[in-house]
């Protein structure tokens, strides 16, 4: 099977060589692979790194091509690649990813078993071992801090609604068309919904594994969560059916905080004021207990990576949830148009 490996990059000069090296190390026959690299008008040396890879490996793979994405967003970048690729199937991986040498081989095995779309686990990792970054990793990898998406939590081999770092046979995009370029961060949710509606199944195979680097600092992580929430809010106005209920849990939490502030602050109706105060205490008690329990569970699961900064986990969970929820609120109230991540 002729496979296309695709990476979209924007200002990734410090990270891009890692995934490019992983692609070069794949044990799948390179004569049956092409590499499509798309640069989103980077202002650093990302394009130079892509060009260097092309020059070094142009005779190793069947084809290596570097393309430009002037619109800069991820969906527009994927569409640039979809108009160019020649493979029987395309595998798209993130610029912040790492993949083992058998990543392509395992995807091909599943595709050749009769599946049209496949993917697998995508644990998160850190770029260096420090106590604080290990704590950030615990927050991001926790089901409470991130999500219950199957690619984060291995459910065994099954069919799912969405996946990360997936492989698609050519007939999939031939039938459903291109990515929606109005969605700069939730493009996978929307196109996977269209794929399911077109009759395709998304096969999750736990033997397939790739890794995603988390943001390297708390401010960057909070910015990412806010942006994730923002695009959930915007997507809800375009394709609400492609989202799941859990996407809106942080929004419900932030809404409850806002309503509790309003309710406890009003003095017109004292019975309602007392009720609001009781409900507010109950909400924070339940949330605090849940955050403490999930923090303890995450720390115990971490084993030897325990450290003093882990005591910040309940507060990290709160910050992540509020950032995401505020983003969703902003997205619901704002216009929906393309922008960079």
Q: What is the topological layout?
A:
Elements (H helix, E strand, L loop, with lengths): L2 E7 L6 H9 L8 E7 L6 H12 L5 E6 L5 H11 L4 E6 L2 E2 L4 H10 L4 E5 L2 E2 L5 H11 L16 E3 L6 E3 H7 L10 H11 L4 E8 L1 E3 L4 H18 L13 H17 L4 H33 L10 H21 L8
Parallel strand pairs: 1-2, 1-4, 2-3, 6-10, 7-11
Antiparallel strand pairs: 4-9, 5-11, 6-9, 8-10
Mean pLDDT: 91
Q: Return the CATH class of the largest domain.
A: Alpha Beta
* Ends apart, CA distance between termini: 33 Å
| Strand order in space, largest sheet | 3-2-1-4-9-6-10-8
- Annotated CATH architecture of the largest domain: Alpha-Beta Complex
In quaternary terms, these chains amount to: single chain
Total discrete domains: 2
Secondary structural class: alpha/beta
CATH superfamily of the largest domain: Spore Coat Polysaccharide Biosynthesis Protein SpsA, Chain A
Report the portion of residues in β strands. 15-25%
Main sheet properties: 8 strands, mixed
Q: How would you sum up the global shape?
A: globular
Q: Helix amount, in percent?
A: 40-55%
> What would the CATH topology of the largest domain be?
Spore Coat Polysaccharide Biosynthesis Protein SpsA, Chain A
The total count of helices amounts to 11
Please tally the β strands and state the result.
11
EC number: 2.4.-.-
Keywords: Glycosyltransferase, Membrane, Transferase, Transmembrane, Transmembrane helix
InterPro entries: Glyco_trans_2-like, Nucleotide-diphossugar_trans
Pfam families: Glycos_transf_2
């Amino acid at each position: 099977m002729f496979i296309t490996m695709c990476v979209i990059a924007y200002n990734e000069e410090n990270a891009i060589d890692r995934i490019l090296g992983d692609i070069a190390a794949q044990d799948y026959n390179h004569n049956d692979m092409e590499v499509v690299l798309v640069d989103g008008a980077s202002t650093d040396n990302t394009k130079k790194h892509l060009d260097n890879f092309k020059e070094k490996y142009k005779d190793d793979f069947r084809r290596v091509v570097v393309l430009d994405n002037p619109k800069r967003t991820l969906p527009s970048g994927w569409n640039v690649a979809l108009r160019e690729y020649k493979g029987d199937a395309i595998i798209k991986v993130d610029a912040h990813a790492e993949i083992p040498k058998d990543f392509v081989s395992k995807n091909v095995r599943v595709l050749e078993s009769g599946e049209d779309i496949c993917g697998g686990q995508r644990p998160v990792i850190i770029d260096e071992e420090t106590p604080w970054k290990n704590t950030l990793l615990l927050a991001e990898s926790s089901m409470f801090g991130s999500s219950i998406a199957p690619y984060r939590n291995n459910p065994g081999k099954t069919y799912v609604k969405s996946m990360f770092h997936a492989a698609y046979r050519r007939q999939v995009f031939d039938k459903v068309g291109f990515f929606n370029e109005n969605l700069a961060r939730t493009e996978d949710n929307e196109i996977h919904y269209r794929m399911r509606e077109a009759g395709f199944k998304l096969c999750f195979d736990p033997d397939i594994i790739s890794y995603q680097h988390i943001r390297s600092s708390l401010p960057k992580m909070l910015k990412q969560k806010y942006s994730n929430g923002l695009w959930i809010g915007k997507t809800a106005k375009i394709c609400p059916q492609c989202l799941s209920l859990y996407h809106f849990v942080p929004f419900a939490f932030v809404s409850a905080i806002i309503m509790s502030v309003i309710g406890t602050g009003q003095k017109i109706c004292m019975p309602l004021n007392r009720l609001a105060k009781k409900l507010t205490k109950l909400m924070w008690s339940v949330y605090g207990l849940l955050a403490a329990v999930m923090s303890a569970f995450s720390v115990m699961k971490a084993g030897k990576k325990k450290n003093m900064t882990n005591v910040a986990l309940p507060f990290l969970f709160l910050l992540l949830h509020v950032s995401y929820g505020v983003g969703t609120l902003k997205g619901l109230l704002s216009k929906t148009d393309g922008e960079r991540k």
